[in-house]
Amino acid sequence: MDQQKSYIYRQSKDRAAKRQRTEPVGVDMSFELRKRAYRAAWAQQEDQFDSLVKALHDPVLQDITQDICNTVENATLPAALIVTGSSGASNDVLFEQLRATVLAENTASCFVSLTASDAPNLKTLLKNLIRKATNETTGFDDEGDAQPEVASQRRLLNYDLQILHDWIKSRPQNSVIISFQDSEAFDAGILTDTLALLKSWLDRISFKLVFGIATSLDLFQDRLPKTALRNESVTAEKSTVRLGPTLVADFMQRQHDHMQSVHDFKQALKYAYMSHFYADPLSVFLCEGLSREEISPEHFEVVRHVPSFRKHIEALLKANDVATARDLLDSDDALLAAINAQIIAGRRQTVWTMGACSVIKAIRSAIPNREAVPFSALYTRTLSGTLQSSALMRETLLYARKADSTALIDLLTKVADTLIVMPPSSIDVSPDDFSDLQEELEALLDSHSGPLPLQSGSADGSSSQPNSTRVATSKKKQPAQSEAQVKYNSILSRFHDLLADYFTKALCPLSAVFLSEVLFYDLKSPHRDVFTPKPRVAVERALSAPHDYLGCQCCSTKEGGLSSTQPATAILYQLYLESGALINAFDLWSAFRAMIGEREKDERSAMALFFQSLAELKYLGMEHVALTDDNVSEGVVGSGVDDFEQHGAFVLVEPFGRLVDVVICAGIRTTDNLWPESACCSKGDRERLRCTMTVTSSS
Questions:
Q1: Residue 453: is the preceding peptide bond cis (ω within 30°)?
Q2: 3-class DSSP state for residue 395?
Q3: Residues annotated as region Disordered (predicted)?
């Protein structure tokens, strides 16, 4: 069967002894519900993601659109250069938004996007330009094929710009905007000829150009002649499921190491949503309008075994609420009601947590001589439970305790604005508390006639200076604080206490959220395997223990080690691992021949397997074949191994020892016409290089 090109499956006439169960049972019954919930959740998240990207692009798009649409007609080709970076996927989104914006601002324009694949030569570029501009398929592929003209009876070649000119005259379009999205991928000669041709048609067709540049303006301009650069114009919180701290940290680390594009980040986020809804049966509880009949009893049993449920039951028992704990353990209806209520409460708690992170970020940005902390770092540290007792929090609260009156007004405004948009929650922190402090502080500043801003100080009249300074000036009498200073210290102290209480209640770690397994997705292993794969480990393990992957009966009883029934490549790889740093090819062949001698009696077949396995290992990068003066001692094979001479391995090297090719020659040594053409060396060189192959370990 292994040698057949195809195999026809013939169904057995015997009826199965037992009918197969085709309907899903248990937790599999909720797959369609989870699929529906995933689509709804991802559609909402994708809209937020796209709107965010659009908001980031809008200012740039408006500037580019105004520059393109308001260009004054003159004798030069108007061009806009956009430095987009190396991300091709995000550039697709940017140019698509640019096209929509330009057409919305100027309906009389025609927008054409060209890529390097559209321009292998000048004629093909013009064909694609005309076809995309007219939005018609010509149906002519050959260069000599003619295409009927729009406005006259003459037949024109399908790359003649006269077709585009006649098409524009018959329609309201008055200009053609051409975008070269990956301009650096275009051939410089083709691009130069295109610019010259478009320049010659500028008096009849209004062309405007947009170039996307991945590197820099200088490198792009170096590829074009100076004549093409003259007079150039250059213009350049609602979520169904959230990511856990481990996965977010992995996202940020991968972004830092590899500079992923927005499109790649979006795909990784989408994969996280798919993994959560498709692989986790508990995600069915995120469906809107879920009824009791749609959930199987197995779902409730799974909920009762998750760690957050056990912690919740322990908390109820510590509070002597035994009746509620008993209902959750025995009644599925009571558990479903508790799940629905806790999912709503958990989402609100998460929003409060993110709001507190925003407040911390705002306070940290106001601290002088301190580097700003990214929101993602605050988010991951909060959910992991390490932020509350960190030095960062102590420094933040200390700054709030020592802030002057100007900084305090800004902090009160930011905290109040953040709390106003927070959803109702069990956290008894009101924005009115901070608003009242702000009004009291503003009234104090209005009535204060002394110098501003007011500085922090101790209410008992002591100074806030370091201890060493206090000892040096302890005998000096401190001046009494003014009434305004005392009131300001009182306001500052109350603000500090309110802020500390707010952070204590709002910064909730992931371990304290009931049903966090449903609300958060925090598994790193699927993402690490998909987006940062490490195939070498898997390949090495497969070669070292092939029976774990093949599942064959001949190797299943072996407790590791070599076996003649294993694949030839696996045998050679294990022999390679058992050898030293330098391996002589003949010694390796002898060990290989002795190992597979039981199943391959023919020595020629065994040698073919040896060379095939060696080539496969070299292709995988497991072995490095080289010839240098330092690590190779030539070993000419004696007359006792005729087959090895007839199937010699010749290594062709350059003068400095760099490997060029490994040629496996299956001919007779004395017959020159059987040598392969790739062995480009003289007969004397062949004799000298014959059988001089050494395999060095890649460790």
A1: yes
A2: helix
A3: 452-481
Whether residues 98 and 207 fall in one domain? yes
Length of the chain: 699
**pTM of the predicted model as reported, rounded to 2 decimal places:** 0.56
SS (H, E, C) 591-627: HHHHHCCCCCCCHHHHHHHHHHHHHHHHHHCCEEECC
Cα–Cα distance for residue pair 456/404, rounded to 1 Å:
6
Same domain, yes or no: 137 and 189: yes
pLDDT per residue as tens digits for the range 252-266: 777 777 656 667 777
- Pick from 293, 292, 304, 308: which is nearest to 328 by CA? 304
Report the distance separating Cα 543 and Cα 559, nearest Å.
15
Sign of the CA dihedral running 202, 207, 211, 216: positive
Say what angle helices 405-420 and 431-447 make with each other, to 10 degrees.
150
Alpha carbon separation from 338 to 285, 331, 515, 520 (Å, rounded):
11, 11, 10, 18
Residue type present at position 132: K
Please indicate, yes or no, whether residues 514 and 373 belong to a single structural domain of this protein. yes
**Residues 520 and 646 reside in one and the same domain:** no
> Per the structure, how many domains does the chain have?
3
Reading the block at residue 435, the tokens are: 């608003």
Which parts of the chain have pLDDT scores under 70? 1-7, 13-25, 56-76, 83-92, 106-108, 136-154, 172-173, 214-239, 258-262, 423-427, 457-481, 553-561, 622-699
- For residue 420, being part of any structural domain is answered with no
Q: Return the SS3 of 327.
A: helix
